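Title: [Solved] RNA polymerase 3D structure

Original question kept below for reference.
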Amino acid sequence: MSQGQQQKQTANVLFTDIFDVKDIDPNGKRFDRVSRLVGRSENYEMDLLLDYNSEIYPLEIADKFSLVLASSLSLEPVGKDKESAEDRDRRERESWRERAPGERDLSDEYEYVMYGKVYRYDDAATGNAAASVSTGQRVSVYISFGGLLMCLEGDYRHLQELVVGDHIYLLIRK
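Solution (posted by the thread starter after getting help):
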C-alpha cells in the first residue's frame, strides 16, 4: 500500500489502538446475545467497556483486537470542517446504501462494525466536562450503538477528535 493510499485510508479514523480483553461480563450476563467486555489498550493506556453481540462476534478473556473509531467508512478523506450540512446529510443517508460490485470501504478490513453516536464526554474523575481539558486529566467518552454502550477512558489528547453529537463507526478485528 502506498503512503498516499494509507493516508486516504486513515483520514477518517478518529481513534485506533489494540486492546486486550481483561474481563467479560464482570457483573454477570444480563442478555442472551450481548456481553460487556472490559479491555485495556496497549499503546495509549485507555480503558474500555464495550457492549457487543457475543453471538456473532465471540471474544474471550486474553484475546487481543484492533479497535478503530471512524467518522466515515469511505476510503476517501471526508473533512468535517469543510463539509456543509447538506453534504453531511447526504453522506449519512448514503452510509447504509448497497455498495456497487467491487467497491471497497473501511469495513472490508474489519470483522465487526457498529454505527453509533457520541452522547457524553466528561472528566473521568469528576464527571465535569470543563475540567478535563484544562487540567490534562483522563476523560471518558460515551457512545451508544443502538443501545449497545461503550465507554472509552483515557488521556483527552487521544480522544479530542470525538465530539458529542457526532455519528461514528466502531470497527474491530482480531
